[in-house]
């Protein structure tokens, strides 16, 4: 009776849910079904951190006292680096390229100049830097920026050749302007070109050197407002650098020469050097070389000076990589770089330009890397880079993100990954060591896995908003290296480049089992081991997965799933390759007309494979060509370590593989999963004939050449679903109108070359899009739970497959696993993306798993291994032993909607339409601290969360519109409110949708600015102090201030105040460090005010003395005079 009533309630709930239009709101009966703990106030979306190399860098700066590095990019981004783990990302709103960066050294501020002719002042004294002031130039283009050490006056050079001066504190222009026509000789009629360099003489702040592009250099006297000297060279200038004594400077030129000038010798350069030019014997000028783009001249107290330059190579060095040249005394070292050099900076012991520089390292910013060279050691070794800047070493093709992993996993991966590190690095500590780590309380382990175009898989420790590479796996080692045989390549490979690219990854953190699907329709299954082994023969299974709909309404036995009766290698076979179809092109795999059959896309290596500790190959599964048609790429993949099964699917069907027994258990076309209950009218695949098993003479095989080429190329659309048949990084569904906007350059491996899909097959093709292993009710009305596999398709159908597993231990390896399709669970709009299960209390039911054991253990360890191999009992809800009404709930999410289905009655009790106009790209059922929810990312940029089981909308934020395929391919949600995606080809952006994490983020972030005493200025020495010759200072305030220089032209630049004033810069930081900083600033201000008070008191005393003296003089003068004499 009780059972009957509950059924009735569930049926009523189903009708109620389906009748409501949006069905996001649940009725009172539904709310009474289960108490939901998550509310909308538990959710908030914000960016946390950005990792990786700054994409398309354009400029760089270094603070030698704070020891922090800033990098600007062509998209207006700003990345700041301190000690490992202290990173920060900022963005200029305009998105214009950053052309120059200048630190206010040891002041916690940074000036950035952009290509849109704006200058910005950033406050670095807070954990999230912000703009204090901006200045937008209207009439002139900015070409160069210079800020002298401990000065508040910023020099800005322009394309017109003029120099403007900006007060950094108020961000206002001074009336003092150096016009180009005043700087050059009056007799010169030609324009000198844009300003390419500005710097003051290290020994005399009143003398400014100005470099013009045409080759003219001017030494300008700021006080007298005229040029002291002019230096002319007939080659264009790229950069200028001073000797620290201020008597010489060096210029780099477009013909590959360096010219050294004495400041008082204007006629000719003191010395001309062509570092890479061949010196002719007859004394003529050396052959011109490529331009030297930058030169730095650094002195040492005890040895020869360093001249460091980029560029300048000879033109005959074709194909040579970009170089940095280090000239020290008589030795010249040419250091080759992997990528073009964007900029470089020499790190020196002192921030003072008028002291011996004592260089110790060079930071080289490349287009795709950051290299730091140790100048103090022989051979100039590089420092080991501790930042996670190698994400893009090979283009990222897919990502997975796991939060709250087993605690022993990161140490295990680190221990095997530490053996992979390169040798030969500098033994010194990383020199960019500023800032302090955050004090975050978030302590659960997080791991990010990235798959790459060259077949590598990288594991990253992502705990506590940091990122560090743990372990790198090279999957391409399993295959033979392709020869340059173009004919063979075209016949077997289905991709033009990157045949080893990773497409999908499935990982079980508890058992450490890993399965990767490659773009060449291959699967590799890995086990984790701490011991090194040599595998004599790589175990191989070849699967013939083809799609066929015959003229009959229901497929005949063996007709639709593709030759299931083909021999498949057994576990007992010593060499599986020999028992299966041929693994290399041969006459037996070709018909007389050259149609390929039973040929895999890649050839597995036949030689022994040495496998280091870490992930080791257990089994390779390859899809083969079928009667001249290439295998379709794998669109979905799942792994279950408890069952010992792998399942994968594509647009033809699915296959279940037992990786313990090394056998194919099931090989079905999608249609065969439905049996006789197929709801879709599918057209037969005419004009092709029924395929024959391979190995015959091939006369009955259909000839591919009879079809027009257009049928083999491109994509087809079905219900707003795009299928990329031959080359796709992941099966993605995108509306047709979005296609032109996508950036396919990042996905070069995913362009379609050929396809077996013809126009007549469009209605029939149904791809497998998702899987889920679980212990649940296989059929409607079942009374006990059993191991099952749920299958989701591109037409929105969810199908169940029952699994009958032998007992654990010896029997599991001997008896077969029985796999039986069990019918349809339900249908949704759009492709199925995610499935999950809850018990009758709403608790998430994870798939069963096996705990990790050492697979290569011997002796006593092997006994422990055998114990560990006993399958872990699944933590089942009480519904197994109770009556039927206490059921489970299946959560199913598609591109358009989500449903919660009660089991075993299979009644839909909740339904929610996620989006009508767009579609969901990624959906995950995630566990939060106090409950579960569905998290979705839509193509229109919305991130949403829905409650479970009620599917109430809890969060909906328009966050990020889909601009290219990379975001869609790499977006991942994980537990505890974390998510990530690749925001550029080189950078990972992490976000959180948890209110708790957003509140704690400020504590977790590191601090860039720390109070550090500025080093003492160099001692002038007794004789220099007595006779002069030391550094002379300049009162810039008096010279550039409004009293002396007047006001600047109004229309020249527009001042834009930031969200905070200068007071905000002093008070915005938080924490103990900031309190110290504020105390220091307060002391400085108090000292300054006291100093001003002293000066005023002294002035008043002097004034009183002067007044008294004048009064006394007047009294003496008038003392003896009579009244009529006045």
TrEMBL record:
The keyword Membrane applies. PANTHER family: LETHAL 2 GIANT LARVAE PROTEIN (PTHR10241), SYNTAXIN-BINDING PROTEIN 5 (PTHR10241:SF22). The keyword ATP-binding does not apply. Its main location: membrane. This is Syntaxin-binding protein 5-like. SMART domains: WD40 (SM00320). Residues 1061-1121 form the V-SNARE coiled-coil homology domain. WD repeats lie at residues 230-264. One of its GO terms (biological process) is protein transport. It is found in: Cell membrane; Cytoplasm. Keywords: Cell membrane, Coiled coil, Cytoplasm, Exocytosis, Membrane, Phosphoprotein, Protein transport, Repeat, Transport, WD repeat. It comes from Oncorhynchus tshawytscha. GO terms for cellular component: plasma membrane; SNARE complex. It is a peripheral membrane protein. GO terms for molecular function: GTPase activator activity; myosin II binding; syntaxin binding.
């Amino acid at each position: 009776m009780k059972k009957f009533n509950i059924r009735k309630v569930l049926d009523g709930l189903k009708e109620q849910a389906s009748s409501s239009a949006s069905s996001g709101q649940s009725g009172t009966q539904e709310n009474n079904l289960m108490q939901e703990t998550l509310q909308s106030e538990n959710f908030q979306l914000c960016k946390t951190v950005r990792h990786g190399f700054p994409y398309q860098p354009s400029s760089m700066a270094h603070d030698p006292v704070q020891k922090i590095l800033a990098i600007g990019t062509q998209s207006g981004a700003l990345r700041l680096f301190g000690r490992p783990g202290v990173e920060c990302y900022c963005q200029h709103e305009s998105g214009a390229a950053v052309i120059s960066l200048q630190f206010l050294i040891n002041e916690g501020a940074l000036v950035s100049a952009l290509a849109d002719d704006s200058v910005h002042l950033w406050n670095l004294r807070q954990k999230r830097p912000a703009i204090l002031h901006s200045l937008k130039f209207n009439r002139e283009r900015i070409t160069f920026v210079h800020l002298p050490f401990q000065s508040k006056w910023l020099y800005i050079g322009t394309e017109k050749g003029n120099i403007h001066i900006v007060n950094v504190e108020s961000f206002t222009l001074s009336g003092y302007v150096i016009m180009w026509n005043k700087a050059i000789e009056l007799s010169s009629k030609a324009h000198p070109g844009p300003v390419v360099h500005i710097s003051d003489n290290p020994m005399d702040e009143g003398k400014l050197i100005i470099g013009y592009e045409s080759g003219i250099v001017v030494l300008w006297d700021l006080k007298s407002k005229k040029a002291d000297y002019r230096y002319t060279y007939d080659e264009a200038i790229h950069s200028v650098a001073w000797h620290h004594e201020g008597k010489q400077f060096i210029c780099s030129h477009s013909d590959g020469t360096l010219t050294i000038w004495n400041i008082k010798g204007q006629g000719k350069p003191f010395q001309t050097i062509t570092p890479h030019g061949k010196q002719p014997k007859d004394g003529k000028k050396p052959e011109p070389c490529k331009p030297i783009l930058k030169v730095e001249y650094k002195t040492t107290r005890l040895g020869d000076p360093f001249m460091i330059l980029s560029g300048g190579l000879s033109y005959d060095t074709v194909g040579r990589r970009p170089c940095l040249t280090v000239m020290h005394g008589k030795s010249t070292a040419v250091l080759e770089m992997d990528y073009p050099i964007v900029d470089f900076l020499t790190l020196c012991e002192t921030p003072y330009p008028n002291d011996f520089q004592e260089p110790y390292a060079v930071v080289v910013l490349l287009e795709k890397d950051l290299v730091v060279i140790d100048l103090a050691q022989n051979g100039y070794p590089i420092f080991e880079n501790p930042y996670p800047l190698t994400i893009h070493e090979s283009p990222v093709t897919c990502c997975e993100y796991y939060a709250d992993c087993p605690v022993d996993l990161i140490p295990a991966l680190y221990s095997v990954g530490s053996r992979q590190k390169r040798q030969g690095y500098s033994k010194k500590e990383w020199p960019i060591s500023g800032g302090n780590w955050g004090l975050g309380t978030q302590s659960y382990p997080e791991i990010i896995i990235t798959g790459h175009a060259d077949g590598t898989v990288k594991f990253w420790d992502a705990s506590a908003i940091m990122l560090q590479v743990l372990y790198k796996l090279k999957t391409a080692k399993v295959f033979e290296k392709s020869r340059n045989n173009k004919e063979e390549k075209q016949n077997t490979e289905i991709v033009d480049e990157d045949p080893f690219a990773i497409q999908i990854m499935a990982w079980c953190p508890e058992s450490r089992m890993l399965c990767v699907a490659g773009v060449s329709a291959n699967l590799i299954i890995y086990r984790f081991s701490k011991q090194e082994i040599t595998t004599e023969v790589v175990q191989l299974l070849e699967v013939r997965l083809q799609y066929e709909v015959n003229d009959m309404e229901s497929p005949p036995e063996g007709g639709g799933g593709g030759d299931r009766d083909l021999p498949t290698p057994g576990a007992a076979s010593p060499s599986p390759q020999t028992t299966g179809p041929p693994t290399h092109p041969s006459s037996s795999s070709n018909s007389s007309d050259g149609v390929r059959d039973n040929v895999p896309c890649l050839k597995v290596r036949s030689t022994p494979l040495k496998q280091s500790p870490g992930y080791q190959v257990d089994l390779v599964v390859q899809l083969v060509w079928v009667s001249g048609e290439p295998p379709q790429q794998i669109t979905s993949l799942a792994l279950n370590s408890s069952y010992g099964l792998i399942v994968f699917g594509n647009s033809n069907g699915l296959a279940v593989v037992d990786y313990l027994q090394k056998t194919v258990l099931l090989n079905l076309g999608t249609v065969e999963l439905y049996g006789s209950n197929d709801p879709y009218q599918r057209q037969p695949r005419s004009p092709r004939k029924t395929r024959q098993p391979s190995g015959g003479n091939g006369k009955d095989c259909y000839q591919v050449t009879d079809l027009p080429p257009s049928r083999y190329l491109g994509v087809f659309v079905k219900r707003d679903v795009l299928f990329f048949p031959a080359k796709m990084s992941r099966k993605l569904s995108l509306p047709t109108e979005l296609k032109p906007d996508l950036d396919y350059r990042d996905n070069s491996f995913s362009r379609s070359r050929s396809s077996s899909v013809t126009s007549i097959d469009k209605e029939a093709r149904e791809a497998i899009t998702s899987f889920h292993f679980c212990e649940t009710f296989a059929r409607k009305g079942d009374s006990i739970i059993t191991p099952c596999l749920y299958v989701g398709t591109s037409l929105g159908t969810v199908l169940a497959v029952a699994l009958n597993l032998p007992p654990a231990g010896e029997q599991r390896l001997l008896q077969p696993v029985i796999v039986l399709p069990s019918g349809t669970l339900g249908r949704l709009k759009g492709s199925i993306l995610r499935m999950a299960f809850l018990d009758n209390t709403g608790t998430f039911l994870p798939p069963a798993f096996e705990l990790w054991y050492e697979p290569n253990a011997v002796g006593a360890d092997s006994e422990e291994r055998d114990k560990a191999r006993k399958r872990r009992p699944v933590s089942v809800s009480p519904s197994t032993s109770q009556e039927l009404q206490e059921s489970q709930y299946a959560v199913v999410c598609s591109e358009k909607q989500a449903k919660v289905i009660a089991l075993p009655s299979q009644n839909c009790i909740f339904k929610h339409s996620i989006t009508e106009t767009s579609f969901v790209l990624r959906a995950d059922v995630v566990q939060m601290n106090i409950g579960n929810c569905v998290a979705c990312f839509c193509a229109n940029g919305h991130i949403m969360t829905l409650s479970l089981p009620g599917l109430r909308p809890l969060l909906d934020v328009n966050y990020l519109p889909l601009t290219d395929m990379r975001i869609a391919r790499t977006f991942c949600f994980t537990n505890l409110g974390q998510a990530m995606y690749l925001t550029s080809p080189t950078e990972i952006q992490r976000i959180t949708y948890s209110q708790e994490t957003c509140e704690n983020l400020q504590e977790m972030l590191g601090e860039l600015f720390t109070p550090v005493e500025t080093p003492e200025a160099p001692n002038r020495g007794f004789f220099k102090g007595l006779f002069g010759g030391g550094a002379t200072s300049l009162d810039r305030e008096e010279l550039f201030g409004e009293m002396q220089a007047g006001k600047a032209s109004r229309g020249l630049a527009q001042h834009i105040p930031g969200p905070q004033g200068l007071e905000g810069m002093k008070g915005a930081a938080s924490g103990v460090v900031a309190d110290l900083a504020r105390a220091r600033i307060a002391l400085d201000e108090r000292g300054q005010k006291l100093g001003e008070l002293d000066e005023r008191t002294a002035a008043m005393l002097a004034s009183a003395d002067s007044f008294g003296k004048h009064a006394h003089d007047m009294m003496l003068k008038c003392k003896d005079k009579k009244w009529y004499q006045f």
